[in-house]
Design a protein that fits this description.
single chain, 255 residues, alpha/beta, Udp-n-acetylmuramoylalanyl-d-glutamate--2,6- Diaminopimelate Ligase, Chain: A, domain 1, 6-stranded mixed beta sheet, 5-stranded mixed beta sheet, 11 helices
Length: 255
């Protein structure tokens, strides 16, 4: 079974509502390919490796979280950009990309899906554009939560605990907040929302000091690792509704 590219775009837009968000780049159809779509490949980032894998899978469309075009980037089609576009255009593959709308979806988005993987049932939102999620939890301390996250995601994480860690190590964590990817700037909003710990993908220099001084644990679990669940969840959902074939392709990324 196949559907039109326009119908598929409408299905993604209806689900993710990109018009609600102020984003860093265009959401929706970024590269136009075949008019009819039968097979979708989903992935995290529109890298050359993902595009090449999608070609091998005979994909008519690729659905990703990180697309090709971002606000403020060099607009010239040279180097890596030329190589990726050349592959897409030569094989007539549509590229759909949704950034913040994919983070925010209450059931299928990156944050919702990370909560599912971690066993956290969000009951509150926080931060700019309500992208952050928060849930009640019961962990003995920051190390126990960090160990749980590491097991669930299958990778080492970075944990920064409050000052006087020896004295506070046994303090239970009653509320955990999270926001996937490069959301370290949401840490202060998470603290204001009552979090005892915050999970995101990356850490920058200021967050280590804030964690120690504010009494809230900070866990950086990897940008890719925290954002690898939303794209396949959305693509599988839409494919199922429309009767399309769908394959998720994991391109390993240590970041």
């Amino acid at each position: 079974m196949s559907i039109s590219r326009t119908h598929l775009l409408q299905a993604f837009d209806s689900l993710l509502q990109p018009e609600r968000f102020k984003d860093y780049g265009p959401n929706g159809l970024q590269v136009e390919g075949k008019a009819e779509v039968r097979r979708i490949v989903s992935g995290v980032t529109a890298s050359r490796a993902l595009i090449e894998a999608a070609i091998r899978e005979r994909a008519d469309a690729i659905f990703v979280h990180h697309g090709l075009f971002w606000r403020g980037q060099d607009g010239r089609v040279t180097g890596w950009m030329k190589q990726r576009l050349q592959l897409l255009l030569a094989h007539d593959i549509n590229l759909f990309a949704y950034h913040l709308p994919l983070d925010a979806h209450a059931e299928l988005g990156n944050n919702a899906q990370l909560g599912r993987v971690l066993g956290l049932a969000a009951d509150a939102r926080f931060g700019e554009q309500d992208l952050g999620f928060s849930a009640p939890a019961a962990f003995a301390d920051g190390q126990a939560l960090a160990d749980h996250v590491a097991r669930a995601l299958g990778r080492a994480v970075t944990l920064v605990q409050p000052e006087a860690a020896g004295a506070q190590r046994q303090q239970p964590l009653g509320r955990v907040a999270w926001c996937t990817g490069g959301a370290q700037g949401y840490f202060e909003s998470a603290i204001a929302a009552g979090a005892d710990a915050f999970i995101t993908g990356e850490i920058s220099e200021p967050q280590a000091h804030l964690a120690r001084e504010m009494g809230v644990c900070f866990i950086a679990a990897g940008h890719h690792a925290t954002e690898r669940y939303g794209a396949p969840a959305v693509a599988a959902h839409v494919s199922g509704l429309l009767g399309l074939e769908h394959v998720f392709i994991e391109i390993p990324n240590p970041a």
